[in-house]
């Protein structure tokens, strides 16, 4: 519910923004025809800041900060918790991980934030754009870092990469949520999320996502999945809009130094996972030469006719990996076994289901697991990727991802998802229910952008068999393998996400963990880099040994001792790009990949990273 003081504050805020010093210049970046409504300007100093909202590294690593009034948190409280959740979802802040001592850090960075909604031409829903301008902006080395959220996270979803590197250096940082985020719309009370991150009724304020009216029984609508836009196809455009927004907000922040343009301000694009895919999409669309360089970590990147699309191998994984991970070679892999080393209860059942449906022929669990393993190996999966993918399988990520992405690719509404899936609030006994206001108030700050989680469940796509999820995931797989109109439409939606070639002179660096089990290198970055090289481009490519996809998983038992984090390699690449752009440092495509090694049972040391 929107409070009266909040409504009264909005006209004042609009007036303050309108009265901000505007440079009189004909530079085209000032024409923000893609911005919807107001630009919200906030200041962050004296116990608050841009990088950690005043929490510092210890506060970020601690328990989620509570709201003083759980039913009506302030905008500042929601922002602080969103920043904290974004850090926790991306970085390893654990005591053994080395963040803040071996690499990275969270110094206080006072400054201003400029935030608004932006819209791609023809899109149904906006994407958020936010620019952080540090007080100590380096006016001699004018730098703007532009980034997109990882996964389906909200606007701060790349702060641990782009913010942590750029803000302490004196760069401004422009973010986009790329049409994703946790601006969930609840049909039960007809509320969504306003620009300040708090819940508001339909029609009372502009909302991050406002689907067409539907019945209260329609559950929860998710912007990434139910906007009708297939936002992944526009991720590159989102990034380029964020860059233009960043230049214009620098004009506002420093009118005496305006105009800020791509000719006098270096724009560095960086992102990881889906954010990495977004900046690579932007590189291929950058006809105006906005970008000075691109650093992509663990990118979800798709090239037509090469590699494999995420939907393809994720639907395959959701069917086959539960059984394949029963193979004895994975007995010591983290999350491949449950308590006491016993198999995960559902996985032997999956082997039996595959046998019953004629997908494997072995008469024993051992034979069925071996055949499932060999099937995945034949499809290109490495043994290391499968071992690390035990976490995604145990957390049921494959089904969550593909059920949601199918809806996005097919541009379906919340009450018309393919294969009978839907989202609803978790009620008593795990059944669909009605959300309470306190839980609803945490969605924007805590949500990952795709449920289940935070009191929202994924329902449907199940039957009453001993293996209830198999029918749904096989239905999702049929949308990739099938020939009917729906399957053709889904594949067309995936095809629309394909990257284009960047210009030849664009410095571009792709980094990927050799052990990535969510976005395996052989399906994603490797075919992309091969395609670039065959097309006359000269990207730098690091396949980092012993690195996997989720730095935030490294504190889990058995994970950190086997792997190294990816963030320090991203920071190192950004350092070298900075040196190239501002200090005439060399840019060569044969820099050797660091000889990383597992950190072991102790804390991370710099030698394990293999960095110079």
UniProtKB/TrEMBL annotation:
- Which SUPFAM superfamilies does the annotation name? alpha/beta-Hydrolases
Q: Which Gene Ontology terms of cellular component type are present? A: extracellular space
What Pfam families does the database record attribute to this sequence?
A: 3HBOH (PF10605)
Q: Which domain of life is it from?
A: Bacteria
Q: Which GO terms describe its biological process?
A: butyrate metabolic process
Q: Please list which residues make up the signal peptide.
A: 1-20
Key words of the record = Hydrolase, Signal
PROSITE patterns recorded? PROKAR_LIPOPROTEIN
Q: Which residues form a coiled coil?
A: none
- What molecular functions are annotated in GO for this chain? hydroxybutyrate-dimer hydrolase activity
Q: What is this protein called?
A: Hydrogenase
Native species: Dyella soli
């Amino acid at each position: 519910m929107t409070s009266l003081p909040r409504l009264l504050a909005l006209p004042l805020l609009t007036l303050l923004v309108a009265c901000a010093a505007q440079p009189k210049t004909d530079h085209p970046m000032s024409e923000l025809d893609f911005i919807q409504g107001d630009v919200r300007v906030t200041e962050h100093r004296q116990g608050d800041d841009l990088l950690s909202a005043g929490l510092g590294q210890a506060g970020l690593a601690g328990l989620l900060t509570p709201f003083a009034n759980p039913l009506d948190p302030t905008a500042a409280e929601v922002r602080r918790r969103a920043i904290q959740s974004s850090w926790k979802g991306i970085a390893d802040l654990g005591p053994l991980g080395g963040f803040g001592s071996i690499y990275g850090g969270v110094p206080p960075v006072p400054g201003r934030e400029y935030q608004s909604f932006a819209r791609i031409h023809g899109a149904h829903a906006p994407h958020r754009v936010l620019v952080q301008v540090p007080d100590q902006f380096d006016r001699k080395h004018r730098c703007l870092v532009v980034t997109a959220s990882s996964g389906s996270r909200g606007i701060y979803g790349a702060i641990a990469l782009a913010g942590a590197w750029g803000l302490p250096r004196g760069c401004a940082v422009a973010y986009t949520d790329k049409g994703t985020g946790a601006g969930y719309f609840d049909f039960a009370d007809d509320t969504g999320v306003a620009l300040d991150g708090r819940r508001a009724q339909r029609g009372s304020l502009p909302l991050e996502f406002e689907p067409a009216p539907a019945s209260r029984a329609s559950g929860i609508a998710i912007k990434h999945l139910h906007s009708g836009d297939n936002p992944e196809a526009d991720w590159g455009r989102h990034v380029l809009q964020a860059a233009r927004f960043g230049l214009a907000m620098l004009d506002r922040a420093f009118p005496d130094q305006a105009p800020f343009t791509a000719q006098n301000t270096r724009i560095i694009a960086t992102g990881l996972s889906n954010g990495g895919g977004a900046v690579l999409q932007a590189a291929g669309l950058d006809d105006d030469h906005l970008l000075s360089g691109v650093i992509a970590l663990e990118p979800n990147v798709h090239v037509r006719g090469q590699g494999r699309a995420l939907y393809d191998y994720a639907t395959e994984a959701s069917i086959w990996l539960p059984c394949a991970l029963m193979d004895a070679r994975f007995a010591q892999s983290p999350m491949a076994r449950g308590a006491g080393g016993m198999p995960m209860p559902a996985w032997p059942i999956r082997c039996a289901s595959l046998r019953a449906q004629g997908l494997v022929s072995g008469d024993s669990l051992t034979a069925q697991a071996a055949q499932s393993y060999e099937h995945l190996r034949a499809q290109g999966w490495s043994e290391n990727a499968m071992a690390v993918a035990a976490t995604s399988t145990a957390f049921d990520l494959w089904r969550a991802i593909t059920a949601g992405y199918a809806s996005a690719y097919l541009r379906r509404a919340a009450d018309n998802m393919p294969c009978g899936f839907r989202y609803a609030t978790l009620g008593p006994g795990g059944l669909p229910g009605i959300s309470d206001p306190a839980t609803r108030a945490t969605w924007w700050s805590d949500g990952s952008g795709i449920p289940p989680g935070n009191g929202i469940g994924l329902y449907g796509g199940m039957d009453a068999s001993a293996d209830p999820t198999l029918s749904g995931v096989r239905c999702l797989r049929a949308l990739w393998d099938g020939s009917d109109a729906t399957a053709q439409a889904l594949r067309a939606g995936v095809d629309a996400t394909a990257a284009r070639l960047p210009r030849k002179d664009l410095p571009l660096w792709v980094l990927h963990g050799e052990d990535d089990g969510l976005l395996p290198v052989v399906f994603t970055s490797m075919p992309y880099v091969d395609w670039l090289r065959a097309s006359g481009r000269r990207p730098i490519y690091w396949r980092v040994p012993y690195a996997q996809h989720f730095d935030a998983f490294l504190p889990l038992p058995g994970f950190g001792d086997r792997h190294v984090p990816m963030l320090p390699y991203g920071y190192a690449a950004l350092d070298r790009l900075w040196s190239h752009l501002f200090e005439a440092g060399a840019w060569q495509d044969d820099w050797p990949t660091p000889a990383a090694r597992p950190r072991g049972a102790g804390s991370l040391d710099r030698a394990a990273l293999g960095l110079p």
